[in-house]
Amino acid sequence: MVSVLVLAAHLLSYAALTTASPTPRAASGYAPVPVTCPSSQLVRTASGISDAESSYIDQRYQKASQALKSWLKSVDEAFECRQCSSDGDSGSGNWSDWGSGGKAPVLALTSSGGGYRAMLAGAGIIKGFDSREANKTGVSGIYQALTYHAGLSGGSWLLSSIIGNNCPTISSLQENLWETTIQSSLLVPQILLSPQAAPIYSAVEVDIQAKRAAGFDISIIDPWGRLLSYALLSGPDGGVMDTMSGIASTSNFTSYNAPYPIITALGSNRLIDGTCIPQPNATQYEFHPYEFGSWDDGVDAFVNSGYLGTSFSNGAPTGSCVTHYDQLGYVLGTSSNVFGSICGPVPAANSTAVSSLTLVEDLAELAAPGQPGIPESGVFGLYPNPFHNYPSSSLVSAQPTLELVDGGVGIAYQGNPIWPFLHRENVDVIIVNDNSADTLTNFPNGTEMLHTYQAAAAAGLTRMPVIPSVPTFVSKGLNQQPTFFGCNTNETVTIIYIPNYNYTYQSGTSTNKIQYYANETDGMISNGVQTANRGGDADWPLCLACGIMKKSGETLPSGCATCFKEYCFN
Ligand SMILES: *[C@@H]1O[C@H](CO)[C@@H](O)[C@H](O)[C@H]1NC(C)=O
Ligand SMILES: *[C@@H]1O[C@H](CO)[C@@H](O)[C@H](O)[C@H]1NC(C)=O
Ligand SMILES: *[C@@H]1O[C@H](CO)[C@@H](O)[C@H](O)[C@H]1NC(C)=O
Ligand SMILES: *[C@@H]1O[C@H](CO)[C@@H](O)[C@H](O)[C@H]1NC(C)=O
Ligand SMILES: *[C@@H]1O[C@H](CO)[C@@H](O)[C@H](O)[C@H]1NC(C)=O
Ligand SMILES: *[C@@H]1O[C@H](CO)[C@@H](O)[C@H](O)[C@H]1NC(C)=O
Ligand SMILES: *[C@@H]1O[C@H](CO)[C@@H](O)[C@H](O)[C@H]1NC(C)=O
Ligand SMILES: *[C@@H]1O[C@H](CO)[C@@H](O)[C@H](O)[C@H]1NC(C)=O
Ligand SMILES: *[C@@H]1O[C@H](CO)[C@@H](O)[C@H](O)[C@H]1NC(C)=O
């Protein structure tokens, strides 16, 4: 991915902080915690979603379908949604069930990768969709109608910031967190080097030493995730106590107020065949509150995410169990691991001159203070392999550690985390918000969608609608306006594709831009609101509603016919 290489190059201008190593503090909330193993089974083969997820989704769907019904009615009284409030059985539905039983569609949102650009543009989409916001748009209410939300890389920063803060509004995150933290981004050398940031630097160093002292391999993803967390999470030491599994105990999760969150990452095959760069068929992993794992051939298994970090053999713990390895900053750092392409050891800084050090060297120094650099494995998100010696995980069963990278990198990079929903037959409609930088001006051009279609076809996944070639995508302007894919077949999901577009702000900012002034954060988010609402186009709310309900088997308002002509590609 071009932007990744550029990011790596950009980071070469980074400098390190040469603080003396503090004496490690006794306690750090970052270290994984050994616990007695539960008697329940922790690893399973990937046959359908877990009982826990299924139960969450049934409850969430009740609320989401009610919200969908109210929004549809607000758009056009003529919308029927006969079963929206009465049928909670979302677990087994598919499009062909609709005509007979009647069933509100299960909606998912995907937030793409692309650094802070993607995070902020994606935040604007949610702000535009969220009925809690003071400024209403014609599409306010869709956020409440979502059952799932997946994020990848920059999109995982957005999703983590939402769920890690118990699902506040985007306005609140914007005003109380991001305007300040992204302006004073710790990824900017002068800021990380400033005396004000020194306590953060030493807290991060203590965290990492504590994880190592607990017996775990450290990589540059530890400091990367920790530094990013200061911009995204709240609570002491950059949200150090937040874990992916802990999200299941937050109040808006236990009351089913929020869509089920999923963060994706890719497996590197370095330990299998020496290729660090993900190939087109790279294994797609997913992290969520209940589980971590992959549906893909060669892994085909999930582990209880709260027990990541535990050593397993053939699905059983080999000793005591481990918790708190699924630290949320480490997960979002893994999903945005742009360093895997280094594909080699990172030597120690060759100079004590602060100005000649790079970010990677600095992360390496935080990861392994005073050492001669970090080994090749240290550029990956490292996870003790829960599928070690697990029979169905033939691709990875021999390796003791999984090495993970950014979900949107590699030869046939896919910037949109659509994959989890091609495996979930209960999902009917995916709103794909693509904030990728495919073009020279940092806008999407369909490349990432096509890659997902091609990878799905190669893997025999039939729920992805056909995506045209990039020249067709661009010549028809599908990358500059919302487009619906899969309108006319019940065999696939419907994709509502919403690309980043510069309605009110030059939102094609570089993936390498690691600092936004408060006015830039606001400009990006406001532009995202316009993107959600198609720049205020009066027909858009109706057309979006028509697209969502197209295959429901319900009688649609007469205006839908015109919408389908305008928005349905196929
Ligand atoms: C969809 O539902 C129909 C009718 O209930 C059923 O025959 C079909 O097998 C289902 N398809 C899938 C992929 O579950
Ligand atoms: C898809 O399913 C709906 C509901 O059963 C039905 O009304 C519609 O005709 C089907 N469309 C196609 C193209 O088969
Ligand atoms: C609402 O919109 C107005 C006018 O565009 C703007 O001045 C105000 O800041 C917005 N409020 C919020 C909370 O975004
Ligand atoms: C989460 O809980 C808070 C406090 O109860 C509430 O204000 C907020 O709107 C909730 N979030 C969602 C998505 O409902
Ligand atoms: C991917 O493709 C390569 C080359 O075609 C093949 O060797 C490998 O087994 C495939 N599967 C995975 C998961 O890498
Ligand atoms: C150390 O850095 C200097 C200046 O960048 C460079 O000239 C020299 O070759 C480097 N030495 C090693 C051993 O990498
Ligand atoms: C689309 O984006 C890809 C990836 O950056 C680029 O290689 C290609 O040239 C672009 N094509 C068009 C037609 O914009
Ligand atoms: C959007 O981009 C186009 C093409 O670069 C440019 O002409 C236009 O002025 C931009 N609009 C805004 C609001 O920045
Ligand atoms: C945004 O804020 C920065 C720093 O405060 C300032 O330099 C810049 O001019 C502002 N940009 C706009 C468009 O107001």
TrEMBL record:
Keywords: Glycoprotein, Hydrolase, Lipid degradation, Lipid metabolism, Signal
EC number: 3.1.1.5
Residue ranges of coiled coil: none
Pfam family, one: PLA2_B
Catalytic activity from the UniProt record: a 1-acyl-sn-glycero-3-phosphocholine + H2O = sn-glycerol 3-phosphocholine + a fatty acid + H(+)
Protein name: Lysophospholipase
Residue stretches making up the PLA2c domain: 36-570
Organism taxonomic ancestry: Eukaryota, Fungi, Dikarya, Ascomycota, Pezizomycotina
Source species of the chain: Exophiala sideris
Similarity field: Belongs to the lysophospholipase family.
Highest taxon of source: Eukaryota
PROSITE patterns: PLA2C (PS51210)
Secretion signal, residue range per the UniProt entry: 1-20
EC supergroup of this enzyme: hydrolase
